[in-house]
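This part of the workshop introduces the protein records we will be handling. A record pairs a protein's sequence with a compact description of its fold. Comparing a sequence with its tokens is the quickest way to learn the format. The record below serves as our worked example for the rest of this section:
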Amino acid sequence: MANAERVRVRGLSIFRPIIWGNSATLLTREEREKVPAEHTHKWTVAVRSATSAPGSDIVGGADDLSHFLKRVSFKLHETYPNPMRNIDKPPFEVSETGWGEFEVHIKLFFVPESGEKAITIYHHLKLHPWSLSGEPDSVPPLEVAQKAGPIHSWQYDEVVFNDPYQNFLTILTNNPPTPLPHAKTNGRTVPFHHANPTSLEASKGGVPEFTVLMEKDEAERLEKGKKAIIAEQEKTRAMLIAREKELERLQKMLNG
């Protein structure tokens, strides 16, 4: 039986949706008295299931991922004590305070039954809102940021297991992911591409949530972007052909 369980199911792919990213808020005056003087924000970086629990203020996290994730390692900026944080049970997250944005290296380790190698993903820790003054890297005034509410920066992805071992396939099928809602499930949901203080919802403290409709909208935006790139390529190609013909004509005139 053990050997049979270690047989791969060829030609089959099974995926699990996950999100990774961070949420950040400004520290209150009282909180700043308990941290280093230069620290301005508290933040949590995490790897979670894509679907949010009903009524939750947390982005994602409705499902326990420990049936396929054994460990998640977060490599923080070297200025933090013990910058390599290994989390061996859910929630797979790290909370800290700080003042600057930096790239977090996140490594996913899978359970032994999967037979899968660890993978590394990257996330730019986001503390400040996008495009508040029309400049993507501008930091808003304190009073503006305080009214804006939390900053959210999350990425949706799907971990794909190709030709899984039979016993691992059984584990996965016994732990199906909660389906994404078709639309927002709470009155404070904010589309991710609008999750900044310039949006009305964010100013009311909205919480982003991934939905089927959002996934569809994103696919449509990507398709529109592809078509725009193809059209630009065709335009450039036509211009080059025209210039080559003009060059050929001038060369004939010179050789005359």
